[in-house]
């Protein structure tokens, strides 16, 4: 295996490879094939859902030299496509607003907009995390969006659309990317591990898919770590748990029983044992929060929960009944806080321990 990160190696190179986001892809393809692309787009949605990938695809398709009328996919062979693919196109300008917030970048953006494309038809500006743009940059952008030069296409991407100025949003065509579903991510992981020739059992992939919480990139990065660690060895669910210090549904379920039974001593002992076994406290709280969230969702609408066996769902239902909406809400709040506080705690498990006490103190 070469050392290019999996998520880059398998970044979709045509629209047909994008999973989920069907309506977005269809709309973009229609716009391309009818030569009707907009001058400004805004892509919102969680990280790892395909915003940057789609932005680059759109840029590639717009400037593809072989794409004929009525077609939407880039050819991936012409010089323009290859330059985009290799990240050396002069007519695709990517600006990360999170790390470039200075005056110089704003000026660069302003001047860049005025100049025509270097070689191709369009100059495409992708502005990532655009909610972080400075006021000055937003104003410059706004002016441009009011009267965009015919050669310019803006694609703004953000994980936090609520922080965007409404004046900007209203001038863009907006697409909301969704979190991917468990089955969609699982399928993608199966596809990649097959291509990589990896020997990895399905429960192992399921654990990774569940852990990624709907972000394809996270799933691919986890798979990457696992493949790098294990080399050619057979990969099982257990070996992954050990390798990454990941807890699984069984762990979270067992822990949740202590919460359900209001057994503070048991909860502490169980936590202690888990840490001794090498589980990472951060991973533990993440797994617990994710599990409790699924318990809550399951108690509201069982149809929408996937990634759990029938027996697991049965247990989750029981726990939901014992804990109740109020209990689940409280536990989720407390353990989510614990996860955040852990970043600043000199004793990593302390926030977890405090959350346990907070949750159970009243009935002791
Ligand atoms: N919808 C998707 N379909 C296929 N792969 C995806 C999708 N979303 C993300 N990926 C994978 O995750 C990687 C990162 O995605 P990216 O487009 O950079 O996410 P975002 O910009 O939304 O954070 C891509 O290279 C690709 O491998
Ligand atoms: Mg991105
Ligand atoms: Zn091309």
UniProtKB/TrEMBL annotation:
Q: Which reaction does it catalyse?
A: DNA(n) + a 2'-deoxyribonucleoside 5'-triphosphate = DNA(n+1) + diphosphate
- Outline the extent of the AAA+ ATPase domain: 37-181
Q: Which UniProt keywords apply?
A: ATP-binding, DNA replication, DNA-directed DNA polymerase, Metal-binding, Nucleotide-binding, Nucleotidyltransferase, Transferase, Zinc
- UniProt-recorded name of the protein: DNA polymerase III subunit gamma/tau
Q: Does the keyword Cell membrane apply?
A: no
Q: Mind telling me which PANTHER family this protein's record contains?
A: PROTEIN STICHEL-LIKE 2, REPLICATION FACTOR C / DNA POLYMERASE III GAMMA-TAU SUBUNIT
The EC number(s) attached to this protein equal 2.7.7.7
**Which GO biological process annotations does it have?**
DNA-templated DNA replication
Does this UniProt record's set of keywords contain Nuclease? Answer: no
Gene name of this polypeptide: dnaX
What family does this belong to? Answer: Belongs to the DnaX/STICHEL family.
Q: Which GO terms describe its molecular function?
A: ATP binding; DNA binding; DNA-directed DNA polymerase activity; metal ion binding
- Extract the NCBIfam families matched here: dnaX_nterm, PRK05563.1
The annotated subunit structure for this chain is: DNA polymerase III contains a core (composed of alpha, epsilon and theta chains) that associates with a tau subunit. This core dimerizes to form the POLIII' complex. PolIII' associates with the gamma complex (composed of gamma, delta, delta', psi and chi chains) and with the beta chain to form the complete DNA polymerase III complex.
Among Gene3D superfamilies, the record links this protein to: 1.10.8.60, 1.20.272.10, P-loop containing nucleotide triphosphate hydrolases
Its function, per the record, reads:
DNA polymerase III is a complex, multichain enzyme responsible for most of the replicative synthesis in bacteria. This DNA polymerase also exhibits 3' to 5' exonuclease activity.
In terms of SMART domains, this protein maps to: AAA
One GO CC annotation, please? DNA polymerase III complex
């Amino acid at each position: 295996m070469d050392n290019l990160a999996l998520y880059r190696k398998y970044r979709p190179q045509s629209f047909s490879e994008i999973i989920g986001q069907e309506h977005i892809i269809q709309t973009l393809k229609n716009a391309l094939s009818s030569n009707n692309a907009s001058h400004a787009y805004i892509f919102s949605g969680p990280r790892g859902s395909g915003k940057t990938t789609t932005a680059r695809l759109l840029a590639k398709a717009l400037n593809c030299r072989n794409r004929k009328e009525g077609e939407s996919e880039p050819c991936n062979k012409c010089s323009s496509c290859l330059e985009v693919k290799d990240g050396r196109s002069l007519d695709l300008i990517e600006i990360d607003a999170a790390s470039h917030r200075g005056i110089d970048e704003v000026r660069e953006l302003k001047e860049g907009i005025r100049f025509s494309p270097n070689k191709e038809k369009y100059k495409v500006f992708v502005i990532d995390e655009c909610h972080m743009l400075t006021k000055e940059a937003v104003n410059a952008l706004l002016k441009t969006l009011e009267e965009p030069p015919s050669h310019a296409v803006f694609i703004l991407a953000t994980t936090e659309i609520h922080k965007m100025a409404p004046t900007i949003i209203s001038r863009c065509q907006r697409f909301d990317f969704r979190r991917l579903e468990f089955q969609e991510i699982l399928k993608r992981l199966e596809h990649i591990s097959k291509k990589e020739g990896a020997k990895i059992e399905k429960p192992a992939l399921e654990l990774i898919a569940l852990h990624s919480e709907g972000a394809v990139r996270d799933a691919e990065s986890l798979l990457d770590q696992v493949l790098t660690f294990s080399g050619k060895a057979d990969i099982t669910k257990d070996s992954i748990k050990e390798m990454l210090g990941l807890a699984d549904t069984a762990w979270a379920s067992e822990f949740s029983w202590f919460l359900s039974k209001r057994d503070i001593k048991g909860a502490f002992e169980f936590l202690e044992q888990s840490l001794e076994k090498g589980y990472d406290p951060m991973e533990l709280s993440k797994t617990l929060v994710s599990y409790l969230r699924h318990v809550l969702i399951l108690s509201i609408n069982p149809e929408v929960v996937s990634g759990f066996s029938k027996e697991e769902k049965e247990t989750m239902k029981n726990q939901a009944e014992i804990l109740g909406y109020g209990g689940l809400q409280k536990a989720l709040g407390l353990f989510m806080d614990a996860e955040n506080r852990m970043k600043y705690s000199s004793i990593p498990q302390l926030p977890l321990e405090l959350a346990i006490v907070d949750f159970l103190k009243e009935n002791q």
